[in-house]
From TrEMBL:
GO BP of this protein: double-strand break repair
Regions that span the bilayer: none
Name this polypeptide is given: Structural maintenance of chromosomes flexible hinge domain-containing protein 1
Pfam family, one: HATPase_c_3
Length: 209
């Protein structure tokens, strides 16, 4: 790696957790991406790219975005799809000590690319591993543990408050990916964890599936 004998360096995960003798077996697993850095908080000189490989659940391939059960009950499915996307932001901002900011933007300017629905929030952000988990279909937001937690990691169901505030508005529990593929053909998640200088981006598309 071109490291001289008198040069200090660290090896970290993409979440900037330093690899040590004590946590090596826990953090270093097949397929994990590692950084070789001069220090844990070193600025990356350029963007890094990591491919996520997993076997999609059957429903991801054949049912994502169909929402046929809403239509069969005479329901308009679009509000439920948007609620799923907003639900992620409600959970991410649930521990904010200041203002909780969630914006929903409908983008139709062809000069900026294809039409899109954008949901922006000032929540705690996700690590690359949490984004990875979001991409894997049908893992409950309440059961993921450790460094493999979802975007709802650390979420504690609050005392009874209006559903519009407590991250339980995804009433049907079908998940963000079905919502994405009902509204469009791909998802782009951009996130910066509050305790990190790194910005992580995940692209998940119907074309890839």
């Amino acid at each position: 790696f071109g490291v001289t004998t008198d040069e200090n360096f660290v090896i970290t995960t993409t979440s900037r957790k330093e690899i040590t003798e004590g946590n090596f077996s826990e953090l270093v697993q097949d397929g994990v991406t590692l950084y070789l850095l001069q220090s844990v908080d070193q600025m990356l000189p350029s963007a890094t790219k990591e491919r996520i490989d997993f076997l999609p659940h059957y429903d991801t391939l054949v049912k994502s975005g169909m929402y046929e059960y809403y239509a069969s009950e005479g329901q308009n499915p679009l509000p439920f799809a948007l609620a799923e996307l907003i639900d992620n932001s409600l959970s991410a901002t649930s521990r904010n000590t200041g203002v909780r900011s969630i914006q929903i933007k409908l983008l139709f300017d062809d000069s900026q690319g294809k039409p899109a629905v954008a949901v922006l929030d000032n929540g705690r952000g996700m690590t690359s591993k949490q984004l990875n988990n979001w991409a894997v279909y049908r893992l409950s937001k309440f059961t993921r543990q450790g460094d493999f937690e979802s975007d709802h990691s650390g979420y504690v169901r609050p005392l009874p408050v209006p559903r519009s505030l407590n991250s339980d508005i995804s009433y049907f529990g079908v998940g963000g990916k079905q919502a994405v593929f009902f509204v469009g053909q791909s998802a782009r998640m951009i996130s910066k964890p509050t305790d990190s200088q790194d910005v992580h981006e995940l692209v998940l598309s119907k074309e890839d599936f």
